[in-house]
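ok new one. same drill as before - structure tokens go in, u give me an amino acid for every spot. 111 of them this time. try not to just spam alanines like last time pls lmao
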């Protein structure tokens, strides 16, 4: 069964249960995000291998910190693109509720 892709939350009326929510980022942005995620996936596999091979704890912790920093970088890039496209469009269309959603998202990112 084919999985439905969700739109960017700010792009569509959240009250419309029927609407699908999709981001509308450029192919370049999508490629950049996917490339970063692929590298992070490799880092995670490497960390798992380090643990399986009983690597020194400090070395593993440094690699975990590196992977977390890389994920934070993806989050920041996606947040920037979201604000410059999805959020901006919704504000221009008069949907100020998108700002409340954005604030909640930023708070979650800061945890």
């Amino acid at each position: 069964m084919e999985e439905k892709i969700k739109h960017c939350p700010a792009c569509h009326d959240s009250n419309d249960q029927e609407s699908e929510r999709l981001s509308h980022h450029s192919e370049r942005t999508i490629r950049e995000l996917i490339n970063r995620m692929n590298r992070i996936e490799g880092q995670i596999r490497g960390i798992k291998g380090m643990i399986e091979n009983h690597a020194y704890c400090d070395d593993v912790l440094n690699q975990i910190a590196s992977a977390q920093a890389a994920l934070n970088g993806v989050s920041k890039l996606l947040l920037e693109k979201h604000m410059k496209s999805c959020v901006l469009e919704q504000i221009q269309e008069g949907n100020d509720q998108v700002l409340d959603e954005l604030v909640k998202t930023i708070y979650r990112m800061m945890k």
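The first helix runs from residue 27 to 52. and btw Helices lie at 27-52, 57-92, 97-110.
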